[in-house]
Model the fold of this input.
Amino acid sequence: MKGILEHQIKIKKLETFTTRYVSAVRLTMEDGSQGWGQMSTYCANITSQIFHQQIVPHVLGKEFNDFMDMGNLIMEREHKFPGSYVLRALAGLDTALWDWLGRKEELPVTKLIGGTVGKVPVYASSMKRGITPEDEANRFMKLRDNFGYKAFKFRVGAECGRGRDEWKGRSEKIVVEVPKKLGPGIIKMVDGNSCYSAQQAIELGNRMTDNGITHFEEPCPYWLPDETKKVTDALKIDVTGGEQDCDMRIWKDMIDRKVVDIVQPDVMYMGGLTRSLQVAKMAELANMTCTPHAANLSLVTVCTMHFLNGIKNSGKFLEFSIEGVDYYPWQKDLFANDPFEVENGELTIKNIPGWGVDFNRDWLEKAGYEYSESEE
Ligand SMILES: [Mg+2]
Done:
């Protein structure tokens, strides 16, 4: 990504449109050209404060021609704050810069990184644990028949559950029930969300293997990579992880030691597309697949489709949340044009510059507004 821009350019203004859940960013360059991005969801009101206080001062009115170098510079200046919040805020700047560049070059972001527009196969991703195995299987069958999904992911254990299940027997049952109802032609995946000890995960994982499940995500607490590695080494199916991780040292270790089979960076937790591409490249050099994490229908899923189509070692399917307004009321009416129409189990990246979406004007008007502007 070195020298991604032909000329050095200055950022003139950065505006944020914020609710408790989402914060959109509008970037304006000194020549008046603009781009839109988003910070990571949840506690976005706090992230937006960090954006104006710890990101903006390092870039406003400064010349640059390289997104990676700019991101690194911010992290160096903020080296006492190496964690999630600063990167969640950085994602707002980075995704706005990619959108700006796409609009400037009149190219979709995926083309800027070597990808192509068109169809992106998705997997239907359930976020619910309170649902019974029967209801989950029935919901999946309807989605399969109505939208043509060819792959599904469902939940086992309790989230960071210290080995406990949502209720007794649910996980043992759901890893049999859902595959049986969906049948052999459909890809079946499971997410443990940091629930299990290695021994528990291996036992349940063997049951998954016997029932045709091919992907076991975050089986053990993600902060215990040695536990996860025991599961990866023991099971025949793919063990996957990395959605929470944003520190490059952790990624290097995960990839060097093959802690998981498949890496799952989240564009927004990572600090944007630039750093996510860096993780995908590290995985590619180690012959590992990258199936990014994207768990809601905000800009994260839009960015991730462009990302997935632009890397050589992408997994076959983009994660696509199947939860609606009952689960995610805040994602309603976020965009003016609906980028999430699934047909035949696929989304489409259209040939529109940048990310190819616009935030909804009404949503922006209702959001809390702040701006920082260069005086030069
Ligand atoms: Mg997950």
Summary: The chain has two domains: 9-106+361-373, 111-349. The radius of gyration is 20 Å.
